[in-house]
Design brief:
Layout: H1 2-18, H2 32-44, H3 48-65, H4 68-77, H5 81-92, H6 102-110, H7 116-132, H8 136-145
Helix pairs in contact: 2-3, 2-5, 2-7, 3-5, 3-6, 7-8
Amino acid sequence: MKRRSFVFAAIAAPSLMAGCAAPIGYNPLPGGASSMLSGAQKYMGLNADQTAASLGSMFALAQNKLPAADWAKLGTTVPGIGDIVSKGAAAGGFSPTSITSLQSVVDAAGKMGVNSSQIKALAGYVTNSMSGAGGTSAANLLSGVWR
């Protein structure tokens, strides 16, 4: 009986520990930030700078509105999320700290020719991508910020 318990523990432990890498609901999105940018660009039909500025401003808003612990959880779901903010600021010519409302997101993206309905569609793409990758909690955090 002891031997069976040991064998089960040896087989089950790695599987159980694999789930400890990220908090529940904050699973990494395959490909992280680069995957998010390229997927959004294809989905929306925007150019690279429009996509970066739009996503960058949206994530800058999340960074400015969420508690630090929640922002860190988003970084678990989208590894490199801070890079999206930086690329977006460079492409769109905005300061991440200036993005404090949905209107400031629309204004920043609008300078790149992206309108508010496209921002709304992009928000849906991001939250659906996260939910589809098992990051439902992260998607819910963003949905709360982007209302």
